[in-house]
Amino acid sequence: AQAQTLASFAGNNRLADGYPVPLLANVATGADAAKAAAAGAEGVGLLRTEFAFLDRDTEPTHEEQVAAYGAVFEHFAGKKVVIRTLDAGADKPLPFLTNADEPNPALGVRGYRTDRTSPGVLERQLAAIAAAAKEHEADVWVMAPMISTPDEAAAFTALAHAAGLPTAGVMVEVPSAALTSAHILVGADFASLGTNDLTQYAMAADRMLGPLAALNDPWQPAVLHLIKATCDGAAAARAATGAPKPVGVCGESAADPALAVVLAGLGVTTLSMTPRALPAVAAVLATVTVAEAQRLAAEALAAPSAQAARDGVRAHLPILD
Ligand code: PEP
Ligand code: MG
């Protein structure tokens, strides 16, 4: 066991039996990255690149992009940084990429799909990421948002590898990707579950709408089944290829300490969250073994409701009382 408290996080996160579950940070800017490093984050699990460019009406130049990405990489020398290509559209419109007149923006041309309507932007971003990675010593992984099919995953991975980025993966945030992850992960090096969107699409409930918050709950057993399907698919892809195929979580769910236990039990290999959540998540994970986390995950999967899943798991975690 480690000297973890609810107030501080020292890195090198492990369960009670020593099973490692690295805790990473979600960031958008160099300033965020400095705070995340100071908070003990073991790396970055989600660098949201769109935020640096939200107020622009033209595509950022190569030099602007290299500088913005490098401002994050420089805080994590020798550590993993997962950078996401532009996730424009729906809750994150970008004037130079997205069409504000779509009737259903959450189901529209967003994320990786903008490559269909604005070809070239993605290749130029990958080139800038590769150039920034060369300048810094971070272990840079790149992933695409809103991937829906194994073909999209393979096409993105090939593009990233061709740009000189050796570790390329996809976000799993569309139910079709969760259900086909065995094929997706044959063609990609890793996956990261975006549980904010995965929940919105599984429950058909707009994540921006307050009155639907109870549906937009990652404890919904339907969402947990999709997470399990993703991890099971990764295990199959691992067996088929002999490559590691890690599956992280970078949605808000990773910041809920009791849900973090369930995610580890479902087979998730890293958790990425807002830096202020790191100490509490580490403290709770340190109280369970991997076998206990697996038992609690099975209990949550079998629950009839989000509330029953949450209450049942929390009852086994006295540190949360
Ligand atoms: C998600 O969908 O869970 C996610 C991490 O991405 P974003 O919140 O930026 O859509
Ligand atoms: Mg998302």
From TrEMBL:
* EC number(s) per entry: 2.7.3.9
Keywords on this record? Cytoplasm, Kinase, Magnesium, Metal-binding, Phosphotransferase system, Sugar transport, Transferase, Transport
TM segment ranges: none
UniProt key word Membrane: no
Catalyzed reaction equations: L-histidyl-[protein] + phosphoenolpyruvate = N(pros)-phospho-L-histidyl-[protein] + pyruvate
Ranges for domain PEP-utilising enzyme C-terminal come to 13-288
Q: Which domain of life is it from?
A: Bacteria
Q: Could you say which cofactors this protein requires?
A: Mg(2+)
Keyword hit for Cell wall biogenesis/degradation: no
Subcellular location(s): the record lists: Cytoplasm
Q: Which family does it belong to?
A: Belongs to the PEP-utilizing enzyme family.
* Record function comment: General (non sugar-specific) component of the phosphoenolpyruvate-dependent sugar phosphotransferase system (sugar PTS). This major carbohydrate active-transport system catalyzes the phosphorylation of incoming sugar substrates concomitantly with their translocation across the cell membrane. Enzyme I transfers the phosphoryl group from phosphoenolpyruvate (PEP) to the phosphoryl carrier protein (HPr).
The protein in question is named Phosphoenolpyruvate-protein phosphotransferase
Report the portion of the entire protein shown: 247 to 567 of 571
